[in-house]
Structure formats: structure tokens, C-alpha cells
Amino acid sequence: MSQLSNIFAENQFCVLVEYLTSLKELFPVVTEFAGFPALMTLADRVHSDDDVAPLVAAQQFPAEVDKVLHYAGKGRDIAEFKQFLQQAQTAGQHNLLLLTGDKLKHHESGEHGARTRYLESVNAVMAAKQHGGFCIGVAFNPFKYTEAEIDAQYLKLHKKVKAGADFIITQLGYDIAALKQLQRFLKRHSYAQKLLACVMPLTLARANFMLKQQVAGIVITPRMVEVLEQEKSLGLTERVYERCALQILIYQHLGFAGVHLSACHKPEEQQLLQSYIERYRHLDLADCEQMWHDLWEDQSDEVFRPNVNTYSKKVSLGQIVKYQQLHLMHDAVFNSKLGLGLGHMIFNQGFWNKKPAAKALLKTELLSKHSVVGCDNCGQCRLADTLYICPETCPKGLANGPCGGTTLDRCEFGDRECIHSVKVRLAKAVEQTDVLKDQLIDAVPIEVRGSSSWRNWYLKDDH
Ligand code: SF4
């Protein structure tokens, strides 16, 4: 059992201190933070696509310090992940935070050659659970502000739990009401997963950096920046640590399992933060919350929320009719006894193994499906589990649900609406939300891509 599992089992509040593997200097790691047990976490490719892998970086730190290794699926395949699991186990690493990850900095859209693939967190959790021996963490972004993106996030969280997550770490955020909503969700569904909130001492420089870089899924409002600017001009820069301390204490009072502390790896920063935790430790929840709001100069939570023009969008009749037609067609051709028998008979012919026939089949499949649903010849058609909205039309190719990078339904890539928001709206209109909640969709192995999903479908039981 890892130290982290023990801490969870004993219901101790803990602090996971994040270190970037791109740091030039090796900072001392702590095993205790303001009286709380502390562990280190190693982030995966946050600074650049070529950062040292957390598994490699972990070797530079004392073996007795328990670590949580992040693994982001960007630019990775399920086979690579399974190899990583083996290596992590051999290296004695037992705690993982599995996430899809934000856009790879050198993302290739496929227009000029290969397309960057993303291993979904749900698939990584399924594989890690099957492998066994790991305490598995997943990321979750509760800071969403339209109906569809909130629903899409929570539906995916059901899948992460079902796949085998042991703990949840939230996206960095400041809207404590959104975290309370997440806590209520876990309680309502009797989910026993441990909940940790990501916190960071938010300086003006960091806020401006995140806004400039448009860091995916992080909400910093103009009012927050205004408050930070005022403070800086008045020389009240320590308020940043005061706030972070209060946030940590609020989460402790709320019964969270701990916090994931980002951008606080320097000893002097840690000392300052710890001193404020000590100073406010005696306060109860109501007093901590009152001080938190006072420091943001706002008694409501509106200061942390973006302006939302449209909370709910409507599904068009055309979308519903298209879904119904495709659903009927799919059932008749791919699920009926007649369809399955015919398909098996046709595609079982050795003829399809010949290159020209395989090529012609693939082209026919692409021509017939691309214009209707956006098919990209993935070889493992998942349309029936995604309400006929093709996962390949998501730039990351995600099938199980959204990444955390949406902004008011807009895709992290900025060029479309998130396909998962569209899908959730449709699912509600046709009463199919259970499909999005329960159906764990397998990852597409690289070697399957570029083959006929029709043929693979009918012959799947022959393998
Ligand atoms: S479509 Fe949605 S899930 Fe896909 S990359 Fe964009 S925001 Fe993420």
C-alpha cells in the first residue's frame, strides 16, 4: 500500500506539492506541510512537449518520499501507456494521476500528414485498473458555466469512477461554490472517491500569464485581475499567500481529502504559505469564508465566474431527425440478426485481404460516412455509443467525454463548439444520457486505424 493510500484510508488531510520536471534547480521536498502529511507530485509536459518524463525525474528525489506521477495522454497511444504501467510498477511507483492533457504544443491536425492522437483518461484508468497495484487519480474540471458543458463534465466523471478512479483532483480554480457542487454530486451518487482541490498562490504575474497563454480550462475573471492589480500597487503582495492559506483551510473544513498545491515549490514560498495557515488555523469555516470574500472584495461568488450570455442552447429538429435516422439504420445493418449474418458472410471472404479490395472498401466507407458524420477511418466505429457524433471530429479524438479545456462550450482549439456539449444536448433531447454516463468506450489502438470498421465490426467475434 502506498503512503497516499494509507493517508486516504486514515482520512488525513494531505498536501500534494507539485514540481515541474522542467525545473533547472532541484528543490528540497517536504514530507509535512503546515502539520499535514505532504507528498510530491510530478507534472507531465506542462512547460514543453519535451519535458523530462515524471517517471525519470522521480529518480532524482529520495525514494522514501511518496510520489504521484502525472501521465497526460497527449500524443500517446494505449500500447505506450501499458508499457509505462509496467515501468512504473518496476520502479516502485504506485500513485498515478491520469489525464488526457491539454493540447500538445506541437499538435498536428492531420492536414499535412500524421494527426496527433490523445489517449483518453477514461481508457488510461481502465488499463491501470486492469493492470492492478496502483492508486489511481483522475482530473476533473468543475469550473464550467453553461448547462451542456457542466453536464458533459459530470457525465464523464461517472465514467472515470466506473473505470476505477480512486481519487479526484480538480482543475485549478477559485470558485469554491463549484467545488461544493462537486462534493454534493459525489455524495448524491455515493461515490467514495477522495476529493482534492488544486490550489495555487495566484499572483498578478501568474494570472496575466495564464490569461495571455489562454491556459485551457482555467477561469480568471477581469474582476480578479483588478483586485490583484490594486493589491500590487498598494504593496499588499502577501495577500496572495493569505488567500491560498484560507482556501486550503476551507477545503479542510469542507472535508476534502487534501489539496494539490501548484507553483509553490520554493522553500521561501512554502514557509510564507505555512505561516498563514498557522495564523488562520483556529478559524472556523464561516470565518475562513468571510475572510476569503473580504480579500476578494466581493461577498458573492460572482467575482470568480465569467459572463454567460446563454446558459442553455436548443437542439435543432434537424439534429434529432438525423440521430433517429442513423440509429434506425445502425440497428438494422449492424445489430439485427439479418444484418450481422449478411455482413459476416460478405466480409469473411478472403478477397478483402487483397490490397486493392481493402483500399476500395476503406474509400467507400470514408466517402459514405465522412460527409455525414465526419468519419476519419478510425477502424473501430464508436458512433452508436456517441449518438452518431463522430469522436474524430473532436481535435483530440475523444469518445468518452470532453477534456477540461472548454470555455462556455467552445472547444479548447477555438475553432468549433465542443462536440461533447453538442452531444449532451442531443442526448437530453432524445433521452439517451445514460449512454454517455455508462458506456465505457475502448481506446482505438494505433494499428487498427486505417482499416475498415465495417469489416472489423462483423468479424470481431472471429478473433
Ligand atoms: S472538442 Fe471538446 S473535448 Fe475535443 S478538444 Fe475540443 S474542447 Fe476538448
TrEMBL record:
Naturally occurring in which organism (per UniProt): Acinetobacter rudis CIP 110305
UniProt protein name: Methylenetetrahydrofolate reductase
GO biological process, any: tetrahydrofolate interconversion
InterPro entries: DUF5981 (IPR022026), FAD-linked_oxidoreductase-like (IPR029041), Mehydrof_redctse-like (IPR003171)
Catalytic activity: (6S)-5-methyl-5,6,7,8-tetrahydrofolate + NAD(+) = (6R)-5,10-methylene-5,6,7,8-tetrahydrofolate + NADH + H(+)
Pfam families documented for this protein: DUF5981 (PF12225), MTHFR (PF02219)
Needed co-factor(s): FAD
GO CC field: cytosol
GO MF annotation terms: FAD binding; methylenetetrahydrofolate reductase (NADH) activity
Keyword Lipoprotein appears in the UniProt entry: no
Superkingdom to which the source organism belongs: Bacteria
Swiss-Prot/TrEMBL keywords: FAD, Flavoprotein, Oxidoreductase
Pathway stated in the Swiss-Prot or TrEMBL entry: One-carbon metabolism; tetrahydrofolate interconversion; Amino-acid biosynthesis; L-methionine biosynthesis via de novo pathway
Family: Belongs to the methylenetetrahydrofolate reductase family.
